[in-house]
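This section describes the prediction task in plain terms. A model, or a person checking by hand, is given the sequence of a single protein chain and must write out its three-dimensional structure as a string of tokens. No templates, partner chains or ligands are provided. The sample shown here is typical of the held-out split.
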Amino acid sequence: MKICMMTNTYLPHVGGVARSVSTFAEEFIRQGHDVLVVAPRFDGRPLAAASERIVVRIPSLRNFNGSDFSVRLPGAAALSDRIESFDADIMHAHHPFLLGDTALRIAMNKNVPILFTHHTRYEDYTHYVPFESDALKEVAIQLPTHFANLCDGVIAPSESIARLLRKRGVTAPLVVIPTGIDVAAFAAADGRRFRARYRIPPEAPVIGHVGRLAEEKNLGYLAEAVARHLVRRPQARFLVIGDGPERGEFEATFRRHGVGERLVMPGRRTGRVLREAYRAMDVFAFASLSETQGMVVAEAMAAGLPVVALDAPGVCEVVRDGSNGRLLPQDTPPAAFAQALGRLVDDPGQREELAAGARATAQEFSRERSAARMLGFYDEVRRATRARRLMLHLHPWTALLKRLGLEWDLLSSRTQTVAAAVLGEEKEKAS
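The expected answer:
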């Protein structure tokens, strides 16, 4: 099968969507399929030649609005001869705008099915856009819903997100397929080497976290909870893999508690070094409330780590309280979160019992299993749309009308959504 995936974020950008797309692409290729990834250019260390070979880079505006995201220039993807000649069997959009719109148009022009993975709760990311408002949050909810219903199939990374999409009005065929992880590679990584590299004593208890250091990750809460834990355990360390705009404020919390020297922050890491970092940890701490899957939680479990997390969408389907970690209510005070970490650190028996449960859970998220489910859905959608695609092939005039209808749907849905959100906000102000 020839699979074209279009995404607004991709390696070397570090984030859940980029890693999801790259993981599926690698596994599809390993199983003998052809893959083309269309993505913007990003700053950072270039990919290896073999990895970059499957990517078409679209000219883009980098570091949009002070973030580490890139925004593709209008119309850039349509000019690529390589996209035109790839002759995809299926288009897979990973965002509902920018390159998502491009994916819809290409799928229509080439008369192939298109699927959409709803990776992100976009309303939690509106602070990256100028003039953030309640109206903008409403737009960020409605636009992905309209986009999903223009597609032939929709993938949710967790059941909680699937329920949310159905509640919001997604009527397209919908399946739950989490991003897969390389379970064996995480389990086999050498954590001792990582500890030696960063001078973490072999006997030091290490609380760990992996993720972008950004506002939507509830980092203020996490920092406060873990800092309290470190205050009570002078040998403990907090190892954080990731970087982002909130790094300075994050570090300041630990300095205020007098434990800044026990915060270990190597920055962004990928591949073997990332897996070694997980294995250098003893317990994984996670407080984000904005996840759609919580992929880093599954990775931590593959590395044999019990997880302490807040009960939130995506995460609650991976962390099972008392089985592979602790799942605490969202209103848990930071001090109680710190106590939960301390109990695991102080009780090796319980920690190992939960670690065994974590390793068992990780098997449910193997990349082979997730890729097989995705390929199965591709085939299902291709079969379901075959008659419609044949009709469009035999009747060019009908195909032209369909393309015009798509452009109208894109324009009208966006206009109506923006108008409704803005007018709703104006009415609220007036009242």
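For orientation: The longest strand covers residues 34-40.
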